[in-house]
Amino acid sequence: MVAYGTDQQPSAMTDTLIDFGEIENAFFQNNTFAIVPPVDQIYYIGFYAYSDANQFFIALDDFTIEPLSPPTADFSFTTSGLMATFISPQGSDNVNTLLWDFGDGSRFTGHPAEHIFNESGTFQVCLQVSNPAGTATFCDSVTVSSDIVGVKNTIAADAVSIFPNPGQSHF
Description:
Order of helices and strands: EEEEEEEEEE
Number of helices: 0
Largest sheet: 4 strands, antiparallel
Structural class: mainly beta
Helix content: under 10%
């Protein structure tokens, strides 16, 4: 078992990081785990192993403690008509939650994000990311249009003609 606490005494190590149970084989076990202590202070890590006498052993190697960095918020996007596709950067491994605010009253949690706006316009889209070390927000203006590039969406009343006029019989 690997546990941590606020004092060197075993009774103070109340938070279990990982419990291997009884060691019943001689195979190498590799484990990686992360902890997020509730407050900044000194913590102690303790190891406790048990097995039948003289059967197995524990070796610790490459024990590393790395601080968790606050996340960084950023995204890029593409648009097509009223639809926008948002891509947050790859490598945001230290992000626990992503919250999108599309600026039109709609929200989405997760990754990746696509959104269809109800009307043409420019919207302030914001991405908020968080992890136990902090929260970051990034906003950008996104313009969408229901017009198809190169085609005008208006038809003049005199541009439509139906022939023959007046008509007789079937068309």
